[in-house]
Amino acid sequence: MSLLQPYVDQSVLILTLDGRILVGTLRGTDQTSNVILEKCEERVFSSTGTEVNPLGLYLIRGDNICTVGLLDTEKEQDMDITQIKAEPLGPLKL
């Protein structure tokens, strides 16, 4: 059983090794931690604001995932994500 199994059908935020931030509903996972996100969107941060790019149904390879966390949907509803300003994350350096 995958460690991500308890997160199935919940909203998650995934940080990938190349610095991408993906948000969506976790629909499935397998033994190699590949994940399927439904209603997935990528958040691209910049010093002028955050761009939200809808991706739809999205598969992320387990070997490209750095972190998976539950998303606080109540706080998400109260925020205007597009107004958040931040420098983009770079790729993980090994």
UniProtKB/TrEMBL annotation:
One of its GO terms (biological process) is mRNA splicing, via spliceosome. Belongs to the snRNP Sm proteins family. InterPro entries: Lsm8 (IPR034103), LSM_dom_sf (IPR010920), PTHR15588 (IPR044642), Sm (IPR047575), Sm_dom_euk/arc (IPR001163). The keyword RNA-binding applies. The keyword RNA-binding applies. SMART domains: Sm. This is LSM2-LSM8 complex subunit LSM8. GO terms for cellular component: precatalytic spliceosome; U4/U6 x U5 tri-snRNP complex; U5 snRNP; U6 snRNP. Residues 1-74 form the Sm domain. Keywords: mRNA processing, mRNA splicing, Nucleus, Ribonucleoprotein, RNA-binding, Spliceosome. It is found in: Nucleus. Plays role in pre-mRNA splicing as component of the U4/U6-U5 tri-snRNP complex that is involved in spliceosome assembly, and as component of the precatalytic spliceosome (spliceosome B complex). The heptameric LSM2-8 complex binds specifically to the 3'-terminal U-tract of U6 snRNA. Pfam families: LSM. GO terms for molecular function: mRNA binding; U2 snRNA binding. LSm subunits form a heteromer with a doughnut shape.
